[in-house]
Amino acid sequence: MESKRPPPSALVDSYVVPGDIILDLSEMTNQTIKIGAGLRQDCDTIQATNAGMLRLSKPNKYWVESSHKRYIPSVEDTVLGVVVDIKPDNFLVDIKGPNLAFLPVLAFEGGTRRNIPKYEVRHRIVLYFLFIILLSISILKI
Description:
Elements: E1 15-16, E2 21-24, E3 34-35, E4 39-42, E5 45-48, E6 52-57, E7 61-65, E8 78-86, E9 90-94, E10 101-104, E11 124-133, E12 137-141
Parallel strand pairs: 3-7
Antiparallel strand pairs: 1-6, 2-5, 4-5, 6-7, 8-9, 8-11, 9-10, 11-12
């Protein structure tokens, strides 16, 4: 028995607003659809709950990408951060992004095990993004 693949929504890669019907599930049988942020299932339909760009990832995963007026870090950005936690080998810095940034003490110019910068919680520092790993850990340089 061959199962039908659901037709991708005509709205994929276009902007949707709350209330837009993305998929009608009554026409689909034996299908697994995964819905992510910005979508909800209401009876036999999947509707948008946030405004933004509708995305589709294989196999059958839908979500809405939207900007919530928050900073999304990029490589080579210069930012102002606030130290929120101090560890022996690194600092955790709030850059007002989705996650805290990780700043190794050896990232400082001239930084060695003996020459560790003296920052306290709530100190402000200017940082430069070298690279980003999975958008959850940001490696910074001062």
